[in-house]
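Methods, example record. To illustrate the input and output format used throughout this study, we show the complete record for Thioesterase domain-containing protein. The sequence lines were provided to the predictor; the line carrying C-alpha cells was produced by it.
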Amino acid sequence: MSAQLIQFSELLAALAVRDIRLWVEGDRLRCNAPAGALTSELRDQLQDRKSEIIAFLNRATAATRQPAIIPLQSGGTRPPIYAVPGHVGAPFTFSDLSKHLGGDQPFYALQPTGYDGQSEPMDRVEDIAEYFARQIVEHQPSGPYIIAGYCSGAPTAFELAKILGHRGAEVPCIALFGPLHPTTYQELPRLLYFSARNRREAIQREMAKRPTFGARLQYFGSRLQGLVTLVRKGKEPIATDPVLASRARLKSTAITAFRQYVPGPYSGRVCIFLPNKAWLRSGAGPRRWLRAVPHAEFFFGPEGCHADSMLEEPDVSAIAALYRQATREPTD
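The corresponding predicted structure is encoded as:
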C-alpha cells in the first residue's frame, strides 16, 4: 500500500473517531461534526482531498447499490467491458486480463447472487442475465457495453447481451473466453469426455512442474488417492463456513441453469477466444455456438495454453493480444 493510501485511510479513521460524518450531494462534499471535533488541520485535509473523498464515497455508495458490479479498472475511454465469470462466480477471474488490457480499458466483473454468502443464487440463465442487465444500466445508463463471459459464464453473457440489445443499448461485441456450450452438460458422453480430458491435462501440467520422477510419481499417487476417496464417499465434503456453503450452492444452481439454457439467434458480433486450436475437439462444443450465431469469429491462443489458465499469467498476455486484435485496438 502506498504512503498516500495509508494517509488517506488514516484521515478517514481520524474522522470516524471524532464522529465526523461525510456525505455527497451532487458534486459537493457535506460534513456534520460535533462541536470542536473539526480542527483546522482536519478542515484543511478535507479541503485539499475533497475530490478524492468524493470519489471514495461515490464508489462506496455504488458498491452498496450495485453489488453485482466489481470494478477492476474504472478509468479509460474505451467502451467498458462487463464480464461474467464461470459457474463458481469468482469475479477476480478477470484481474490479470484487465491488467493486460491496460489503463484505458474500463473493466467490470459481474458478481452473481450467492457469491457473497448473504443472498441466494439463481437457477435460470435468463434470471441471472436480467439481474446483471439491471445492475449495468443503473451503473451506466447508456452504452456502448462490451459483454464478456468465461467458461460456463458464456451463456449468461450471451443472454445478457441479447437483453441489453433488445432494450436499445449498443453492444459492439460479445467476447466469449473458452466458452462451454450448454450441450456440454446436457449430453452425458460429452460431459464425461470433457471432464476426463480436463482432469488428465491438469494432472499432466502439475506433474511437469515436479523436478524429479519420484516427485511426479508421488503427486500422481496423491491425486489418485484423492479420487478413490471421493468415489468411496460418493460426494464432496459439505462446507461448514456460511460463505463457502453459499458458494457451493451457487456452483450447483449455476450448473443447473447452464444445463437448461438454449441459446437463441443473435445478429450482433460475437468473438470466441479459445485457448488453442485443439480445444475445438475438447468436448466443450465451441462450434455449436454457430447454431445461434453463424457469423461468430474464432480466435486461437498458442499451443500449450489451457482453458483453465488462459486468463492467468503467463497465458493471459497472448489472450489479451487476441482481444486487442479482434477489437482493432493498438497493442501498446
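Annotations derived from this record:
The chain has two domains: 3-63, 68-186+242-326.
Residues 1-6 have pLDDT under 50 and may be disordered.
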